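[Q] Does anyone have a clean structure-token version of this?
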Amino acid sequence: RMVSITRIIRVAFLAVMIGIYFGPSIPILSFNPGPIEPHKENNDLGRSKKLLEGRVHGPETILFDESGQGFYTGNAQSPDGEILYYDLKTEKATTFARTKGVPLGLAFGPDGVMYVADSLLGLLAVSKAGEVTVVANKYHNLTISADDVKVASNGDIYFTHCTSIAKEGDRDIGAISIVSIVASEQSGKVFKYDASTKQLQVIIENMTFANGIELSDDGSFLLVAETGRYQIWRYWIKGPKAGTSEIFMHNFPGFPDGVRRGSTGFWIAGFGYRKKMLDAIHPYPMAKKLLLAIPHFLQPKPDLETFVMHVDQDGKILERYDSDGKIVPSITSVWESAGKLYLGTLREKHVSVFDRGTEGS
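[A] Here you go.
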């Protein structure tokens, strides 16, 4: 028995040494999450249909054109960073542009130019002819890893820099996000690109993986998902609180990703449910360092179960739809059009569409 105890102590000591010397060389912070609220999962999204099956890989964001007859999406997992257009009537997809990076968030400006948040190349602009130019890829000595983008009516651009821990040339934003979230490191930021001065300004910082971003209908505020802290921020652009931020939703039941205006309120994509094991070790940096020291291919993989949530202007929950991950996995964005929800994902090879009119059928 003494030998067994000694062996356990040696193994534990070795594990600690591995964590100390071979863990990631990034800040690993303590974080005390709130309790996970119980919820009965409904798997309503299991009735969704697949679009573009096999034609896309990592359609992170869905962006409809003005006509509502089709949408753009990025091929985030493709080596050439393809952005394509899908015509709903003809069911045909055509290449619109190639960024050569990792296109994530997409948004149109008032002039019809598409702006792309590319985690590898920064903030990009794509002309109507598909020509790609760089708007911003550096802020002082910081290399920008853009995640999502929205454009105000005056042309000002707001976008998230998800994290600063990525190594140059690293395309695997999924793996990067896991490390950032487990470490609770706070290098995420929200930038404003002033259309008149062409200058960048940090308006929110110290975020654990800054993710989806959306403007309110009247442009008075932004909503920003802080994935690693299970919360949504509101940043005031206009009014008496202009220039200040506050918590819009706290203790989110999963990992908040894309945020999008709906016909009313906002849709929030829950990339996955929160994990009891991760919440349990969040207060203990050394435990997290040990977890991150394990080779990536041996680390626990996120589940595919996912959900979307519809909230009003004050964050009150109006609707929620869940998925067991079989048909609709790991949702990263939502676009509401004609009673349907078009759902993006970073991992899979299709776009999902859910008809809310079939609820309960």
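[Q] Thanks! Anything notable?
[A] The mean pLDDT is 93.
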